[in-house]
Each structure stands twice: as structure tokens, then as C-alpha cells.
């Protein structure tokens, strides 16, 4: 489990030296709050906090509110300095932060990071390095910014059995989908709006293609199921193919469309357990609590055996909310530096098998345009039944150019559903498959 | 702040001995889960957990699922035993648990409690005893059961400035008010229904008169504002005077009525800070997230400077949800026992003044039956303005027996509002004051 620490603590009143790596939106906010609230931090930690260095990529860039003596472009040297006890990594990216964070951990510095991609890709290696050095590695800010969810999963639910974690964990995509839902506009238009308002970055790929959510899903699944889960284990599908017609179809079904990160424990008839983690846009009934999450807000919905259903809701992104989470972790790590000890490391003892996505049970909403000829409905229905899929609802609307068939399946294996759709596409009576969107949350 | 601990830890693999005080709904569930999931607990803690004794009030009562060798009625001796490392207090009440818990803390045992009344009344004394012995005192289960809120306030928001905490923290009263809202039934009828369904106890006073919520408000305010707050500091008004007409009036104002625990930091024009904590039934707009909390669920809404708005929602009561919170704390305390160290104690350095309730700014919804004579409206309006209160909305409906005046004020000091109502009651043109209910959440 965790290597015990021999950290006896520097002692009450002793200074905690902090290095900040990265001075973007979050780094700037962290630095500002550490200065502005320095007395509160000292009282809460039991010793003064001093930022002793700030690493940036471009030393020449003017930074009006920062003491120039603190600025360096040599992060590797900074994290090894004797006057540094704790390192905050808010650079972003994977390879470079990985190397610097490992250097910091090996040098015996505690690390607080907001870097979801780094933790999702290399969490195990970083955790082992933290264990070896007997220092803390905290990453609340990596998932859902200010909304405490890493802490509750690591700590409050440590005595419970978590069965499911479903989250809206990306503000950019929730803003776009919510705007499409309220205005009826199409995806490109709302992506442009999101960019204009600052909810989407210049290159929005990581957000809109679901990679950001997939990193967070990996972290959440690992914590929930006490198993190592990396971003590569998470099936990932973004929102760039969602159309205004999809949103309208969802409305007719009394649903809305959300990009959901779903982490689930499944138990076989023979009692064997496995887990899955996946990100995709899904129809969700409007009565479901997650359906009420608007604009760029985030929410995480947890089902645990004893606790029942819990939901956490708030700002999942932004400089201030992310800084709040970073500083909460800083206080905890700094308290340990002053008073001794460390938090438990990752608990990954369960080591549950991770299901291949084809083996995950999901439910499809399928919208087909079919030729209006005798026997088409029977033909389509038989394709489903041949693949072992039973249908929950079927709606047929005729028109001059054929008929529209909207089908909601019962739960079935993803593989069976994919095969069915492939066969439908190959059927010449099926003129078009207008959309295939999974459905979640129907059992709430 | 916190006395550093010299707890070096028993060592990986060493046993943690647990004493459970109380074998009611929660105690029974905790014992059951510790037995059923013993392997998970051992893996998560880093050493086996063994329940070595269970204290009850009546040894003769049959307890089919409990090893009789564990049972004792001498809690004082139990908590002092050498084979006990950690004590779980789930007895309830104040005086007796206080004495036993102090005994346990002084004997160097870590304590996990679900007892809101105890912590609200004697939290400071218990915290000091825990600090002196260098052991943990945890009480997540005392507030909102399984919903993590103590942990987030103590830990995740430790780097932020919390300005407001508003919660629905009592399941009994929320069930009753929600049932009155959906059915139009009166209070006594829905209290009977709540009792029948097990949402209210045989003697529901502590719940319906707001004392349970007030204890929780004291705990939340103390954590949020780093100040010692006891139950005696919390203004407390329950729901037993709420009528079906009040609920109907709320609906006309597009509101619902909830029993709210409100903890707030206020800053004067001269920059001086103070805090308030109060419990009363209040109108809340239907669009407010707290208005959507149904049945016996709980929710806590937090506003912090960097984090912005957060909401936590789930089961606030019940054997299983409370056990979940107790066991999360048990894992944390047990990890410290095995690996060394302890969590920080209470942070109460801010020591902010606690406002007298009369000095709290609130807003009233007042429903008057007035004599239908010339000048009554002017007279009533002048009573408000004489007390410095401005009116937000006024609605007058005439009838054969006089007129009904429904008034919503702007924010004003509670004292001014109380004085106004007193003067209105004394005015012989005011035939009846049908209700006076405060309003919250209008600025969401």
C-alpha cells in the first residue's frame, strides 16, 4: 500500500518554501492568492508559506505583478533547491511536466498538480515516486476544478463500495451542448460562440473530442475502484458529430444530450467483477439530476453501496476554481511538511480487470431513414433480434421520401449494437442512418 | 493551531482495535460492514481492523448477529483498554457521550463520531482533548450523513475563503415540507405520514423544531469561518407553525418553503467581519438549486471566493448513509494509527464575532388580513418606512371581510423587521397576521 513516511515535520512556525511551475491563468491566480491571503495561509498551515521561485517558459515576457527575482526558466534546478519543500505544477502537457514532476518527487518535494493528462497517463509512476520519497502527491484540481471529487473518493468514501461514477466533467462541451439545446443552433455555430466567450480554446480538440473528459474518467475510475486506470483504458468519443437534429430528436424523447464520463463496476452472474470507463455523448432523461447542469458547470454523480446517491456540482474549470482546488491541496501538503506525516498514497489493491468497450452494456437511440417498401420494418427488427437486442420503443413516421424509424433499444453489449448498426448500414432498404447516440441514466 | 503528534504509527500490517459505542441502526450497520468487507478495509488501511468490544445500554437484549463476547455495558472501561486504538461513538445524546468520548481521547484513542449534538455543544473541549493526546477526532457523519461536507470544508476549501453555507440538512423536515408542497396537505397530516414511513421519530421535536439542523449549522459555520460556533450561537426556528396556506402563498410567489440552515460571513462598510448562523423555514425561489431537493434528501450549497458556487447533494440520514460516513472517517483514522501522524485539528484562529440574530439582514414575506377602511394601506406602508424597511412587492386583494395584503420586503435587519411586525399586530386595522416567513436565495 503506502510506504510509511519518516517525515517528522519541520516544526510549528517553520517556513514552507513553494515553487510554482507555470504562470498561466491558474499559476497567476495561485500566486496572487498566496500573496493576498498570506496570513490566513500561515494560520491554517501552522507556518508561513513563501513562494521562492516561479518557472516559466519565456523569461523575457513582462509579468507586472510578479517579483522578477522569482522568475526562472530552469524548472529542473528550481525543484531541486534546498529552500523548496513543495512544488505546484500548473504547466500542462504531458512529457515535460512528467520529467519535472518526477525530478521534484525524487528530490523529496511534495507535489500538487492540476494536470489531468499527466495524472491519467503516468499516475502510477508518479505515485510510486511519491511513495518512495515519502512525500505527498495531490491532484484535486485535475478533475472538476473546485468541485471536491478526488478528496471525497480518496477519503470520505474510503469505507464504502463505489459502484458508479457518472460526470459532466468538461465545461467547454457542456456549454456547447447546452447552448445547442436552448437555441436549436448547430454545432459549429455554438463552438464559435464558446470560443468567442472564452469557454473554448483556440484549438478546442482536446475538449470537443472528449480527451480531457477521458483523462478525468481515468482518474475517477482509478480512485473509485482502487485499480490503476490510464487514459488509454478509456473509450473516448467527442461531440463534434452532434447535430441540431440530434438535439431535436433528444427533445422529442424528453431527453437532452450531455457528454458523459461513465465509470462503472459490473458483476457477472458468476460473481466476477470488472470495471469500465468511457466517454461519449449520450441522451439523458430531463428528470435526471445531470440533465439540469447548465452552461459550463460540471457535476459528478456517484452511487455507492452504503452512501446511496451523491451529487457534487459546481465550476469545473476556470482560473479561480482551479486555483481553489490547488490551494486546498497546498494547505494539506504544507500542513504535513510542518507537522509531519503524509497522506496515504494511491490505493490500487483491487486491480480489477478493465472491460474492453465492446463488452460494456449500453443502450442505443437510432434514427433511420428507410425506403418505404413492404417488409422494411420487419427486416430492420430482425437485424436487431439476430444480434440478441430487444427493442424498448419504435416510432415510425412516413413521408413521401420513405419513412423515418426512431428506435430505442434495451441494454445490450456495445459489440452487438455496433454489429447491428453495421448490418443496418449495409441493408439497401436503409437509406441513411441519421444518428446513433447512446442513452444513459434511464434507471434513475 | 494543532499540537504536532508524536504518533510514529504501529507499522504496516499491525492490527487496529476498534470499540463501537452504541448498537442502534448506525452501530449495527457499521459492525456489519466491518465484518462483511474486512478484506477491503485491511487493504485500504494497511492493516487488519478488529472490533474488540461493543458497548450497549442493555446487555440482556438479544442481538442475533453479534458475537456475545464483544458486548459490554461498561463503555468507560472499554475505551481505556490497551487493545483499543479507535473508538466509534454512535450512541447519541450529549452528556453521557461527552464523558465517554473525553475518556477515550484522554486515554489516547482516536475517535470517530456521528453525534451532531455533542460536537455542536462541546466541539471545542473535545478538539482540545484530541490535540493534547495527539489523536484524531473525526465527525463527517454528524452533518448530512453520507454527503461529504465536513471533509470538503476542512480540507478541499482550506485554501479558499468561504462566504456562505446554506443547507437543507434535516431529512424529516424536508420530507414533510416537500409532501405539503406536492399534496397541499397540512402539517399534522404530513408529520403523521412521515412518522408512518419512518422519516420521523416517535418524538420528532429535535427534527421539526430545528434543533438537529441548528447543531449541524453550528458545525458547518465553525468549519467554514475558522471560528468556534456552538449550538447556542445558532438562531433556531422549526416548521411546526407552517400551514398549507403558507405553502400555497409560496407557490403564488413562485417559491417553495424549505427549512434552511444558513451560515454567512458579513463585512461591514468599515471592513470589519462577523458571522451568523441561523435555522428557520424560508421561501426559496423554485429556480434555486436547493428548491429541487425532494423528499428526505439533503443538500449543502457553498459559496467561496475562488471556487464560486458548489453544491453537494445526497442522503442526509439513514443507517447506511451515516455508516458510510463513519467508515470513511474510520479508514482515515486507522491509516494514521498504522502509518503514523494525524490529521490537523480544528482551525479556529479567525475567531470572528458572531452576530446577534437581530443584526442579521433578512427579508420577509408577510401576509396580512386588514380591515377594508380608508388609509389602511398607507398606514401599513408607513409602519415599514418608519422602521427603515423598503418594500419589494405589495399585492392587495379585496374581499367582503376586508383585504388581504401580501408584502415582500427588501433586505433589512431582523430587528427592524421584528419591530415592524409587532407594530402591525398592535394596529387595530390589522385584523390578522396570517404568516411571516423569511425569504432566502433571491440573489441566485
Automatic annotation (TrEMBL), chains A, B:
Catalytic activity: L-homoserine + NAD(+) = L-aspartate 4-semialdehyde + NADH + H(+); L-homoserine + NADP(+) = L-aspartate 4-semialdehyde + NADPH + H(+)
UniProt cofactor(s): a metal cation
Positions bound to NADP(+): 21-28
Residues the entry annotates as binding NADPH: 116
Annotated keywords: Amino-acid biosynthesis, Methionine biosynthesis, NADP, Oxidoreductase, Sodium, Threonine biosynthesis
Enzyme class: oxidoreductase
Xref: InterPro entries: ACT-like_dom_sf (IPR045865), ACT_dom (IPR002912), Asp/hSer_DH_NAD-bd (IPR005106), HDH (IPR016204), HDH_cat (IPR001342), HDH_CS (IPR019811), NAD(P)-bd_dom_sf (IPR036291)
Matching Pfam families: ACT, Homoserine_dh, NAD_binding_3
Pathway recorded for this protein: Amino-acid biosynthesis; L-methionine biosynthesis via de novo pathway; L-homoserine from L-aspartate: step 3/3; Amino-acid biosynthesis; L-threonine biosynthesis; L-threonine from L-aspartate: step 3/5
Entry's EC annotation: 1.1.1.3
GO process annotations (BP): methionine biosynthetic process; threonine biosynthetic process
GO molecular function, one term: homoserine dehydrogenase activity
ACT domain boundaries: 365-438
Binding positions (L-homoserine): 201
Coiled coil feature spans: none
Catalytic residues (UniProt): 216
Role description: Catalyzes the conversion of L-aspartate-beta-semialdehyde (L-Asa) to L-homoserine (L-Hse), the third step in the biosynthesis of threonine and methionine from aspartate.
Record-stated family: Belongs to the homoserine dehydrogenase family.
PANTHER family: HOMOSERINE DEHYDROGENASE
The protein, known as: Homoserine dehydrogenase
